[in-house]
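Repro:
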Amino acid sequence: MRSFSRLDEAQHKAIDIHASMGMTRETLAKIFDPFFTTKPIGKGTGLGMAIAYQIVVVTHGGTLEVESEFGKGTQFCIGLPVNNYLGGHELSFDND
């Protein structure tokens, strides 16, 4: 797995994550659905990506995108607004 961050043209702090061996089209179509899991019964809740979507997109007004090709890999891109406010405190994404 490898990741990097950048400031994109929409003034979002973008975090790119490259991981896995890729997903099938069927899996990719359901990746953000609550309770969807590829794990055996009893081994996963299927809430991880649904919760990530809720936090990033709904709560913070960001973006959460995924591209995948089975056998080649998966890339997630998380975009968070640079000038976002939470509880009256500005969030900072400085690399210092």
